Amino acid sequence: MENFSFYIPTTVHFGKGQIANLSASIKQFGGSKVLLAYGGGSVKKNGIYDAVVAELKKVSIAFVDCDGIKPNPPVEDVNRGIKIYKENACDFILAVGGGSTIDACKAMAAGVCYNGDVMDLMAGGKGEIKAAAPLASVLTMAGTGSELDMGGVITAGEDHKKHTIMHPLLYPKFSILDPTYTFSVPEIHSMAGCFDALNHLIECYFIAGSESTDVQNMMNEGLMRSIIKNAPLVLANPQDYNARANIMWASSMALASFQFAIGKKGSNWPMHSMGHELSSLYDMTHGVTLALIAPAYLEFSLQKAPEYTWLFANFARNVFGVIESDDAVAATKGIECLKEFTLKIKMPKNLKDAGVEESKLEYLAAKATEWGNIGALCKIEKEEAFEIFNRAFA
Ligand code: NZQ
Ligand code: ZN
C-alpha cells in the first residue's frame, strides 16, 4: 500500500431535526454575520430556508442572502457571493443546498481572503490559498459528497470548462445532514445524485495499486452495494426515510477525503473528466453524465488493462452478486449489471438519447484530455477518450 495522509475536520450532524445544532455550531466557529447562500429557490418552496432562518433568528445571528446559485456553478455566482460577503462584512458562509451551492461557497470562502481573481485559486492557477472564511453546509441533496470534502468544481470561461478548487481550509466546519430535507429532490436529481456517489466509488475502485488495498476495496464494495440497494427504494418512494438516509450517508462516505483512493497509485478521475465536458457543452446534470460514460469507460479499460480482470471480476461478484467462476466472463457481466442499473434508475440510455451530437464527440475527447492523460488503469488520451465517447454514443 502506498503512503497517505488522511484528514477530515468536518463535524457531521446527521438525522431528523439536526438543524437545531445550527446556531451553536456557527457561534462555535466565530460566526456573527452569515452569508446565507442557496440555489434557485427550492429551499424556499420546501421550507428549509425558513427552518434555517428561524434557527439564526433564535440567537440573533445576522445574515445576508446570496440566492440564485446555479447548477454547475459559474464563476460569476462565486464573484457575486464574494462581493456580497465583503460589502456586508460577513464572517461566516453557510451553504444551504446541493453540491453546486456548497462548491460555490468553497470558492467564495477562498476568494474573500484573496486579493485577486478567484480563478487564480483553481488547480493549476497562479494563486495560492493561504486563508479561507469559515464555511458550513446544510445539505439538501445527496450525491457529490461536497459536504464532507475539501474540493469544489466551478464553471468558467468561454468553453464553460469545469475547474477544481481544493484545499484543506475548504472543508466545511460542520455539515447538517437531515435526510428529510432530500424528500423534495426531483426524481432526476435524486437518481443522478445516487449515480454520482456510486461513480465516486467506482472511480476509486478501478485504480492501479488496488491489488494491495483490501481495506479500501472491501469497504468500497459495501458502500456500492448500499447505493445499488437503496437508490431503487428512493425511486419507488421518495419519502422512504431510511433509503434517503442510507443514500445520504453513503454519498458523504464515498469521497470523504478520498478515503477509497488513498494508498493506490493515483487517478485523474477519467469518468469525471469526460463527464465534465458533457456538462460544459450541454449544461448536463453531473450524475447523468457519469451514468452515460461509466459503462463504456469500464468496458474499454477492461480491454486495455487485462491484468486488472481480477478487479473487474471482484466488482461483479462482490458488488452485483454475479455468480461465475471464470474471471473474464464475470468481469464483463459486472459491467453489464452496471449498465442495467443505470437504466433501472432512469438514466438516459446513451449519449445520443441524451441529446449529444455525434459531430461533437471528437471535440469532447480533446477537451477532456487537454491537460494530459486522464487514465487510472490505462492511458487515456484524446484517441482513447474519443473511442470511449463513441462506445457511449449509441
Ligand atoms: O437550485 P435549487 O433550486 O436549489 O435546485 C436544485 C438544483 O436544481 C435541486 N435541489 C437541491 N436540493 C433540493 C432540490 N430540489 C428540491 N428539493 C431539494 N431538497 O437539485 C438541482 C441540482 O442541484 P445541484 O446542487 O446542482 O446538484 P449536485 O448536488 O449534484 O451538485 C452538482 C455539482 O457538484 C459538482 C458537480 O460538478 C456539479 O457542479 N461536484 C462536486 C464535487 C465535490 N465538491 O466534491 C464532486 C462531484 O464529483 C461533482 O463534480
Ligand atoms: Zn461526481
Compact description:
The protein has 394 residues and is an alpha/beta fold.
What about the largest sheet? 6 strands, parallel
The assigned CATH architecture of the largest domain is Up-down Bundle
Q: Strand-and-helix sequence, N→C? A: EHEHHEHEHEEEEHHHHHHHHH
- Could you tell me how far the N terminus lies from the C terminus, measured between alpha carbons in angstroms? 39 Å
Cα Rg: 20 Å
Tell me the number of strands.
8
**Mean of residue pLDDT?**
98
- Name of the CATH superfamily of the largest domain: Dehydroquinate synthase-like - alpha domain
Strand content: 5-15%
Number of domains: 2
Number of helices: 14
User: What is the CATH first-level class name of the largest domain?
Assistant: Mainly Alpha
**What ligand molecules are bound, each kind once?**
5,6-dihydroxy-NADP, zinc ion
Helix content: 40-55%
Sheet with the most strands: spatial strand order: 1-8-5-4-2-3
What characteristics describe this protein?
single chain, 394 residues, alpha/beta, Rossmann fold, Dehydroquinate synthase-like, alpha domain, 2 domains, 6-stranded parallel sheet, two-stranded antiparallel ribbon, 8 strands, 11% strand, globular, binds 5,6-dihydroxy-NADP, binds zinc ion
Description:
By secondary structure, this protein is of the alpha/beta class. It folds into two domains: 11-181, Rossmann fold (3-Layer(aba) Sandwich); 187-393, Dehydroquinate synthase-like, alpha domain (Up-down Bundle). It is built from 14 helices and eight strands. It has helices at 22-28, 42-45, 48-58, 75-87, 99-111, 187-205, 214-236, 241-255, 270-282, 286-304, 309-320, 327-344, 361-368, 382-393, and strands at residues 11-14, 33-38, 62-66, 92-97, 135-139, 151-156, 161-166, 174-177. The strands form two sheets. It has a six-stranded parallel sheet, sandwiched between helices. A two-stranded antiparallel sheet has the order 6-7. β6 and β7 form a beta hairpin. The longest helix has 23 residues, at 214-236. The chain is globular and about 65 Å long. The two termini are 39 Å apart. The mean pLDDT is 98. Zinc ion is lined by residues 144, 196, 199-200, 272, 286.
